[in-house]
Design a protein that fits this description.
Blueprint (H helix, E strand, L loop, with lengths): L1 H11 L6 E4 L4 H9 L4 E4 L4 H54 L4 H8 L1
Helix pairs in contact: 1-2
């Protein structure tokens, strides 16, 4: 029963973390639920401190997942932006290189002095 609920909950709300609470001796069910996507499990009777710790871990995990997703999305944008900048620099270099290397160029004399 708990496994079905856990699966259904994760299917309908994939972005939430599920923490299972099981009765003593039902560790096989809890392990199966975790394999199916539950974040963690607690044994009944529930200890308030353990519940708070487990919820804190689930919230931290969720925060990291969102941060990673944001990083990946922004990384792609940043790579696209930098690629365009490099392409523009390359184009400018190809245009200016003949001017810099020509025999009568003042810039050539400057580069010799450097």
């Amino acid at each position: 029963m708990a496994l079905k609920r856990s699966k259904k909950l994760k299917r309908s709300h994939p972005n939430i973390e599920v923490i299972m609470a099981t009765a003593f001796g039902e560790t096989d069910t809890a392990i199966t639920c975790m394999k199916e996507g539950a974040f963690g499990f607690l044994m009944k009777p529930l200890d308030f401190k353990s519940l708070v710790v487990e919820i804190s871990k689930a919230l931290e995990h969720r925060r990291l997942v969102l941060e990673n997703k944001d990083y990946q999305e922004n990384l792609e944008k940043k790579v696209e932006q930098r690629t365009k900048e490099v392409q523009l620099l390359n184009k400018n270099l190809k245009f200016n290189l003949p001017l810099i290397t020509s025999k009568n160029s003042p810039e050539k004399n400057m580069t010799k002095r450097l």
